[in-house]
Automatic annotation (TrEMBL):
It comes from Stakelama flava. Residues 27-90 form the Metalloprotease TldD/E N-terminal domain. Transmembrane segments: none annotated. PANTHER family: METALLOPROTEASE PMBA (PTHR43421:SF1). This is TldD/PmbA family protein. Residues 120-224 form the Metalloprotease TldD/E central domain.
């Protein structure tokens, strides 16, 4: 596996060959990885998988024409062929007046921020096997669990490099460690399944296998004997495990490409109220050990913490260089290599009320813990998802429920949202428990 310096040099070598082959400008992104994973089931080893690979993506520009190609081969001959192929393709491409590299004056200069993303840990299969077995054993030890889909543990290291023909070259390494368990409860048609997992950049920050396993078992048993409910309008509580999906729909709606094409339900809402008063949405690429932390974006621009929504007001679009040019604005450091945008450690700030307080005045509502399907319309904001979770009756979480559909419109959902005070940074995108009033539930 390449070191960061070696990966940066290979990316620069691809750029040099692209310019020699006739490109006016070019950028190259290289990712190399080495991963080890172990899976077990019913207390026995099922699989040990070790992988190592590389992917280099080269984008070239000839005037306002561009093309992108990729390869897994990094030797000089492969890079020569890649550059020549990319240039041939670009000459045949249609023109795009917005295409081009990021502004040279905006590129990251100097040392990147120290994010402590690589713990340098050496992990062997026996260590991962012990963790996977412990997680599964803890899950199977929960009363009511009847079978197992297995436990897993993995460790990986990735090196990411980016180079451009107008002066940027950078690289960094990151590690990832994860644990998971998935079990079954009940029998026959009454069987239920659930899981738990945890990931961290540093192995020392992982939850214990026993904690992951017990959570998987408890979640599964809690779903037994789900009730069916009638239809109607009611408050919905979104569990932090699935609530980040609402933020995903939001960031898609404020991406520069969608705004430039005028295909967003939040079109023309910059500087206006889009969430309830008091809600703040932030993106922090510099969070130490963050699962999506990064020192520069996919175009070589510096990243920095940004407040996307403050007190409910939309403060910025998410812009790469192409969409910024089209909208007459500046890129925001959210570019992805090859086009489009990507957030880093995105989250909704914690509110002031506890989850218990959010449900305390709900006479009839739902705590949703699982969503099914992709029923979000990015143009209109219409939202409809299959769901399961638990009934809220008289301010208390009572019976499990399944086979229901929840629906609303994201514009209304955002404005009727209340965050709890239980924010934890467990995923790439994080939210506290969220209450959304006025949604429609379709049951029996």
């Amino acid at each position: 596996m390449l070191t960061p310096d070696e990966a940066r040099d290979r990316a620069c070598a691809a750029i040099e060959r692209a310019i020699k082959a006739g490109a006016d400008a070019a950028d190259a992104a290289l990712s190399t990885d080495a991963a080890l994973s172990v899976s077990v089931r019913l207390g026995a080893l099922e699989e040990v998988e070790r992988s190592e690979g590389a992917d280099l993506s080269l984008r070239v520009f000839i005037g306002q024409r561009s093309a992108s190609v990729s390869t897994g081969e990094l030797d000089d001959g492969a890079l020569d062929d890649l550059a020549q192929r990319a240039v041939r393709m670009a000459r045949e491409a249609s023109e795009d007046r917005w295409a081009g590299l990021a502004p040279e004056e905006r590129l990251l200069n100097g040392a990147p921020p120290a994010l402590d993303l690589d713990d340098g840990a050496e992990v062997d299969p026996e260590m991962l096997k012990a963790d996977a077995l412990a997680a599964e054993a803890a899950a199977r030890g929960v009363e009511g669990v009847t079978n197992s889909e297995g436990g897993g543990a993995s460790a990986s290291r990735v090196v990411i490099a980016l180079a451009t023909s107008h002066g940027f070259a950078g690289a960094y390494a990151l590690t990832s460690h994860s644990l998971s368990a998935s079990v079954l409860a009940g029998t026959g048609e009454g069987m239920e399944r659930d899981y738990a997992h945890h990931s961290a950049r540093h192995r020392k920050h992982l939850e214990s296998p026993e904690a992951v396993g017990r959570r998987a078992g408890a979640r599964t048993v809690a779903k037994l004997n789900p009730a069916r409910i009638g239809s109607g309008a009611m408050p919905i509580i979104f569990d932090p495990r699935i609530a980040p999906g609402l933020l995903g729909a939001f960031t898609g709606a404020i991406s520069g490409g969608r705004i430039a094409r005028r295909t967003s339900f939040l079109q023309d809402m910059l500087g206006k109220q889009v969430f309830a008063h008091g809600i703040t949405v932030l993106d922090d690429p510099h969070r130490p050990h963050g699962l999506r932390s990064r020192p520069f974006d996919g175009e070589g621009l510096p990243t920095s913490p940004v407040t996307i929504v403050e007190n409910g007001m939309l403060e910025t679009w998410l812009l790469d260089s192409a969409s910024a040019r089209q909208l007459g604005l500046e890129p925001t450091g959210h570019g992805s290599h090859g086009g489009g945008v990507a957030t880093s450690n995105l989250y909704i700030a914690a509110g002031t009320a506890s989850p218990q307080a959010l449900i305390g005045d709900i006479e009839n509502g739902l705590w949703v813990t699982e969503l099914i399907g992709q029923g979000v319309n990015p143009v209109t904001g219409d939202y409809s998802r299959g769901a399961s979770g638990f009934l809220i009756e008289g301010g208390e979480i009572t019976r499990p429920v399944a086979e229901i559909t929840i629906a609303g419109n994201l514009k209304d959902m955002f404005r009727n949202m209340t965050p709890a005070n239980d924010l934890e940074f467990r995923y790439g995108v994080n939210t506290p428990t969220l209450r959304v009033d006025g949604m429609t539930v379709a049951g029996d």
